[in-house]
Amino acid sequence: MSVDVKSNLLDVLSRIKESEKNAGRKEGSVKLLAVSKFHSCDEIISAARAGQILFGENRVQEAAEKFNEIRKVFPETKLHIIGTLQTNKVKKACEIAECIESVDRIPLLLEIEKQCSKLEKNISVLFEIHTGEDSKSGYTDLNVLRESLSMFKEGKFPHILPCGFMTMAPFTEDENLVRKSFSRLRKISEDMKNEFPDFPLDELSMGMSGDFRIAIEEGSTLVRIGTSLFGERNYHEKKELS
Ligand SMILES: *Cc1c(COP(=O)(O)O)cnc(C)c1O
User: Fold this and answer.
1) Is the pTM for the entire model greater than 0.70?
2) Above 90 in pLDDT, residue 122?
3) Atom of ligand 1 nearest to the CA of 228
4) In ligand 1, which atom is closest to the CA atom of 166?
């Protein structure tokens, strides 16, 4: 049951293009983040060989082990951290990632700034927003989000560039609930762009294997796709290995 990553990649890219077209979006306005969590270096390298540069992982340790190897072959690969980030993992996350998509609290921003300042490195972040009933992660209080952005405005995070927003829709067959979650993120992003015009908050990271068409219709600029590229994840087996 080996998976042909290259043909999956071509298929996903053409589905993204078709969705852009059907939604009246500009061609090339939606980027693909290949979510490679629980998949091997070999599988990731197959995707890189087929031209994919942007990858997402949700566990920092796993990501560091894999991408330190992969970058020996493909130094241009870029990594986004997309999973809930514990403060004690921030140092390593800042060492390996170009973007942290799962910023959900002010103390996390303070730690990212601290570590990036030590590394003399700039990093991009997205604010993860809680928009769906059964996801547990993300900002729930928009006033805390406003407070975070105000701190950027005050110059408290010179090594961090806020680029936009991320969300996960609820896992449900109900397309309306999924759509509501995405349109809520877009509305929040528009409100925040009006309130904080100093920052390029244009990135909208939303849409996964099962719902990216809807996300693109609702304005996604970055879809995070794992299963459709690499096949099902085998959580059990990988857990025993690590
Ligand atoms: C795993 C994961 C994805 C990819 O999900 P698929 O359904 O496999 O495409 C996207 N976003 C986040 C935050 C994830 O943890």
Assistant:
1) yes
2) yes
3) 9
4) 13
